[in-house]
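Quick sanity check, DoxX family protein:
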Amino acid sequence: MKALQKILASTIGIIFMLSGFVKIIDPMGTAIKFEEYFHVFAEDVSTTLPFLESFFLYLIGWKLFLSVMFSSFEFILGVALLVNYRAKLMHRLTLLLLIFFGFLTFYSAFFDKVTDCGCFGDAIKFTPWGSFTKDLVLLVMLLVSMKLLPGKKRVSAYGTYGGGMSLQKENSSIFKKISIWVAVLFAFGMCYYAIQHLPPIDFRPYKIGNNISEMMTSQEPCVSVYYMEKDGEEKMFENYPTDTSWKLVRMETINEAECQPLIPDYYISNEQGEDFTEITTKGTKLLVIIQNVSEIEPETMEPINDLIRGVSSDDVSALAITSDATDFDAFKRKVRLSIPHYYADATVLKAVVRSNPGILLVKDGTILGKWHHNDTPKSEVISQLLNQE
């Protein structure tokens, strides 16, 4: 039984570590998911509990802080379960977290509100009901593990049964404490790095080396079947029947997930909404991604302006892509940004680069480089990347 308990606790711990890891390397992604949930909750309670609507909207301003704390706690808790540190306390905390997870995933699945819970970030996608099932399985495993935890040691007038703590137990306790502190430093350190730079591992379609144009096309041809009816009989056909007496009831795509493009919503337009997507995927482009102009100070743009001037002599066209509906021309004058600008959906730009502003080097649709504004490259770096092609 003791072995089974350790296996269950270790399995849950490893899953929590993996889930926490993909979040701490991209806390901005988890913050975006928090914002999505807060908006959904605020909308759902707006008519019945307006004070809660204000509360959820208020929490949006704390989304990044909550993301860092939540993601780090999940990773640290996974380490604690794996090394069996303060087992009873950690099991209870895990129980609370799984109940919280279960509520979110059930809410998403039952009310069809948030189609992706973000449980494993962008690394692994779950359907809402699949995610809820996962949480139920983990909950059952945890309850069994809690049931199998050893009880308190019995103490007599002669001391605790089994004698005092041995040197081996002392070493084990030290190892567990060191493991927890390493996990704490690693989790918060990784969050800080990802926020100040970019996620060290990119699970999104817009990662370096991917071709945007290819990601916008279907992964494989869609395969459909046809449900037809004649004389009260319904029959499925792999090919549309030539017999006109059969009437179409419905058509279903049997490989819908595989035939969908990895990037279904990448669309670049001008102020009039005209399609200019191709301008970013043809030739060599330096794309300056600006999500929200109110969050950008003029000094932040100075290295980017230097980069634009440095590559202007090369065969590189610099463009600004923004999702901000405010007067972008006024912002350009304020920060002295003298390049054409176009528009895209805010969600798309957040997926393209986790930085505001951020920089992409794209050649014929292939992403050659991606930078946080804190790491704005020199023009020599751009030249080197282009010469490697």
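Posting the structure with no commentary besides this: The chain has 13 helices and ten strands.
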